[in-house]
Hints:
By secondary structure, the protein is an alpha+beta fold. 26% of the residues lie in helices and 25% in strands.
Amino acid sequence: MTITYALMEKLEKIAEEEPERAKYMVSSKVTNLITGKNGEVVGVKYENKEGTHEEYGPVVIATGGFGADFGDDSYLLKVRPDLKTFSTTNGPHSTGDGLKMSMEVGAGTTDIEWVQVHPTGLVHPEDPNAKTKFLAAEALRGVGGILLDAEGNRFCNELGLRDYVTGEMQKNKGPFRLVLNGAASKEIEWHCKHYTGRGVMKAFKHGNEVAKEMGIKPEKLQATFSKYNEIAKTKNDPYGKKFFHNVPLKLDDNFHVAIVTPVVHYTMGGVSISPEGEITNKQGKAIEGLYAAGEVAGGVHGKNRLGGSSLLDCVVFGRVSGRTAAKYLMSNLINQRGSSGGAAASSSSTGSNKFDVTIDRDGNSTTINVDPDNQKCSINLSWDGSRKATTSSAPVAKPVATSTTTKKVEQQPAQENKGSNEKKEYTWEEVAKHNTEDDCWVVVHNRVLNVTKFLNDHPGGPQAILLYAGKDATEEFDMLHEENVIDKYAAYTVIGTIKGEAPAESGSGGAESTGTTIAYEGDVPEGTVANVHWSKPNNPMSLEPLGVAKPGNKEGPLCGGTADVLKQERTRVSFDVEKMTNVIDGGA
């Protein structure tokens, strides 16, 4: 998800440094699309705690799929009633709102009945019937994990496509288990630790313990392992598997094991779009002012998506649709005469190549001054007759999409404070009492958070937090987040600290570090260990070689163990968004 965070942070930076170019609003729900007299989309209606508002301009729908739409008016069950009993990996936000709103204004659909079912949703032993389940990444099978049925037998090529593996599971008897031996577990240590922390994977010290958990004899499990080891040697698998990692399998080893089940994962179908990202109607004609990007769009991947391609789809079509929407906006502003959807447009010229276009709606106006000779334009906005001049200057060749609004809605700034009640102290015993969905506290770096009202806003769903209700969630939090996300998105949840403990800095956060020992895999000899220094996660790092790890050295300051590498992985990886998107555009 590194690319997702990088793009979000870039948008936030633009909104903070150049608010005339972009703004973002959180805790706001779009309820309707606004259309003009000719059926074109001219804006949205949305609501938040301040009331109902309208925002005008081209609209890009990027609301995701409908894989968690199990409500009374479920569109998922309308097109795929056979999936009623399945759980989903999607959060509660994936209910197809953008799809439904688009269809209400005439959007057509493509491949709408094709829903990808992922074979390895993780079953929590204490809540096996939960409608939302965590996903077991394909990487677990890629490093050598095998799938076993209730009797301890293999039944498929574990590396087959998602629909194939799911189909084979439906032919056989569950519960199904994903089994990783010690070598595979070590190779993908971060995932195993993550899933174990969430209670959806168990660690075992010996294969006999695995057999007991499964309710089979150890001899049966050993027979399965021996057969698999022989297949790995001959490369002659009856199920067609060609690659065998981290073999042999043997009972005298440690294991990580998870119960898995097929789950709704991705809706292949969605609104019909053109190659330019325009949403089209049932006749294939573009609906003016309406665009789509990501899972909400159908026809991009066909009937079955390859793993790992969804974020690529979001980035590519996000840029394609954004660019098309910007072109549409500028074309309308320059060429429009008369009115559209109640907005009056006018233009004037000074006799040179310079010209300006003004759109008025209900006393709110937008004026764009275009200077083709210098490849610049400026935008002036006014609300309720009070002129607010903004001077966003940008090349005409790359126009900036903008919109007008009937009510000025203040952007919610990033909150840098750490909660007004942070000086209040709580004991661990006090925190432990708040361990339910209706009263949920967690601790992150000795800071006490009351996340009861935040649960449904959490992108990963409430369950990811509820696992740590009344407990310390620091280790799990650090696996996925920078510490500053609390202050940026949920500062109001911080109510105090643990008694006698000062708030601790995150191991991978933005605080300045004096260096962390990790194994460095760059243009240096293999095994070299370096001390890495950084002031901010996205800044270039300086490397201070410390020595070379000796073969077989598993511990000590120069070992550069896997855990240290994984702990710092998110800090080491960064994207230059501008360069990255230029490459996607076909630029430098």
